[in-house]
Amino acid sequence: MPAHDLHARFLEVRRRAKGPVAVVDADTMFVNSAAAGLLSSADRTPLWAWARRWLGAEPERRPGRLTLTSGTSSGRCEGVYDDGALVGAVIWLTGAPAETGPAWSRLTDSERTVAEHVARGLTNRETAALLFISPHTVDYHLRQVFRKFQVRSRVELARLMAIRAG
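^ that's the sequence the OP posted. Answer follows.
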């Protein structure tokens, strides 16, 4: 299947996706914005291998966890076929990465510093004053951290920080 057909399948799936989704084949990977914070280009090969194992197994023997650069996650998969041959896969990631270690390396120093202050309970204004930056800059960095870790609140971020420390 040409990459443009796979891209068309991705656009179709993305419209109805509620969470992180990727469409992969041996050479290509398309991700929605929810998956962009979880996946890197290095994840394409393991995702494709996982999808082929998942699709080729009986339901009770399907691999549950997949290893990503951001940690381990779970998912479900649907094959993309061309004349009966498997040419791609749609992967819905159903769990946030269970391991937080490698994902922390994807944060910039500024994002990491802001995340640490916010996780300790400081407001954006307090964090800005401590770091000598604008509260708007703190908000920007915080939104990037939330996107990269797929969290929606300061409480979720604090939990991740506690797991990391713990």
